[in-house]
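Protocol step 4 of 6.
Sequence for Class I adenylate-forming enzyme family protein (Streptomyces flavalbus) entered exactly as in the expression construct, tag removed. Do not edit the line below.
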Amino acid sequence: MAEQFPGAVLDLLDAAGDRPVFEHGDRTVTGAQLLALVGRVSRGLRARGVRPGDGVALLLGVTPEAFAAVLAAHTVGARVVGVRPGLTADQRHQLLTGADIAHRVTDSPDRPDDQDGTGTVPPLALADLLAAEDDGRRPRVTARPHDVARLLHTSGSTGVPKACAQTYAAMTAAWAAHPDRWPPAIRELAPRLRRFLVFGTLASQVMLEYGLLALAAGGTLVTADAPAFPDSLVRHRATGSVITVARLTKLVASVRARPADLGALRALMVSGSPIDAARLREAAEVLGPVVFHGYGQTETGMISMATPYDGPGSLGVPPVDLEVRDADGRPLPPGTDGELYARTPSQGCGYWGEPALSAEVFTDGWVRTRDIGHLDHAGRLWLTGRARDVVIVNAQLYYAGPVERVLATHPAVREAYVVAVPDDDTGEAVHAHVVPAPGQAPHLAELRALVAAELGEATAPTRLTLLDEVPLTPAGKPDKRALAARAQRT
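Step 5 output, structure tokens:
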């Protein structure tokens, strides 16, 4: 039987040898040194009774030791739950009490983020695990294919976060650590990650995936504890990093107002929410051809990615199985909008402890994305909305995505977000939240006329709120729930 994940990653570190693979402050760690750290933490975990299938929560920063701990937890075959920084006590409690955690590894036991809210899971100090002796041997991978390798929590931007389970077999089938499996867009991206800026937690799905890609491409992971763009990019001479749509918008505005030396920058991977074509063109004008627009989900991993050379608005040609289906589950022809169903090598197997929801989303080997879009005749993917991000007006369902995109075309609008609000006459109506362009103040009447002309009167916003900036979830996505709650109060 082939060695399971993270065997291929250990191979990368072994092959790197004396090449630097991690830079943290004034420290540089080589592949051989990081591999030794993985071995020590693995032995420390086993000595404390961690076995394949055990639930292990990781509350860690972005140090080389933290990265080694992530790999070590997988090396021993644990079911890993990464706890991202910035969660509230209630969110941590919900996340950890529902995940059947037996062990909790922390690199700073006194900080608030390291409290699990239950008092029932004693911490394992990473420093103590690292005290295990280095025996000079390659770490022994004991992960089992059908065990759950990790629980990945959705962002909760449209509901309560769910724990998506991914098996070791799925992680082993993933493409990041295997150059021979890279799809075309990833082959374009990978060489640009010579100095990949990492932050938050290396246990996150996106940060780990792109971090492994950088290592496989011969790059170095460079840490930023609290990234502030563009300063962190300049200070660390970063060639690539991950960025949300909201932060990309701020970065472009900042660099336009105060030019920064971003000559080293080669790639910004944007994911988490759609970005309109006008914003992509503006980013290319200010930053150069560096934006890679990815589309994927917690449940599927990457589905498709547009390179800087794809037409703005499309998400490129998906390298995975993707079907566009109607409400009855029948495939639709090119150019016709429908719900997207994806099938990827590394997709999840269900939601932890939620069999009914799992059966609804994971069906016959496919994952229902609950997103709306179409494939054009060239096979390129276009997103047009989210199946459950809707407003129901006079019993007719309208998707928020198209309304937001029309609003964003107004010259006085920098960002636009739409939520449903109760309406005595129509049941629900559209409430628009807008971040104005600098020095502008769009009027509701203008925005209503614009939307009505493009999409019809039913979707024209009846209310308008101007924002200095959009609220974000802990994952950095626009917080639609917060906007809806604010709309209810006005």
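Step 6, annotate. Residues 390-489 form a domain with the GMP Synthetase; Chain A, domain 3 fold (CATH 3.30.300.30).
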